[in-house]
Specification:
The protein is α+β, with helices and mostly antiparallel strands. The protein has a single domain, classed as TATA-Binding Protein (2-Layer Sandwich). Strands 1, 2, 3, 4, 5, 6 and 7 form a seven-stranded antiparallel beta sheet that branches. Helix 1 packs antiparallel against helix 2.
């Protein structure tokens, strides 16, 4: 299994295309993160929900912002993780930072990854 991470990330109106490229669908909200999966071993977690604009916990005073993912963690097979990371760099309108080989900005423990 491999992982990759992104700091503050905004897709603007490109989030649906990002999900479509990788067959991702919204799985559920899990504590402080939102989970997206392809059902085949790929997991993307975000601090905010870029589909609905809902912010994660502790940000109740902010206005919903569709397309804004905030922190992103990508987990799964190396080839899939690499492809998703390339799509983030290709489709996002803003990326503050990136951590190759680790999800440094939002953590999903191994026990949480595929439950």
């Amino acid at each position: 299994m491999s992982e990759h991470g992104f700091d503050i990330t905004d897709f603007g109106d490109r989030w649906p295309e990002f999900c479509w490229r990788h067959g991702l669908w919204f799985d559920r909200r899990d504590g402080k993160m939102f989970r997206w999966t392809d059902g085949k071993g790929l997991l993307v977690v975000t601090q905010n929900n870029p589909e609905s604009g809902e912010y994660g916990p502790g940000r109740d005073l902010r206005v919903d912002e569709i397309g804004f993912a905030s922190y992103i963690g990508i987990y799964g097979p190396e080839v899939s993780v690499r492809a998703v990371a390339e799509s983030v760099n290709d489709l996002a309108i803003y990326v503050k930072g990136e951590s190759v080989g680790q999800s440094n900005f939002i953590r999903c423990s191994p026990s949480q990854q595929f439950t």
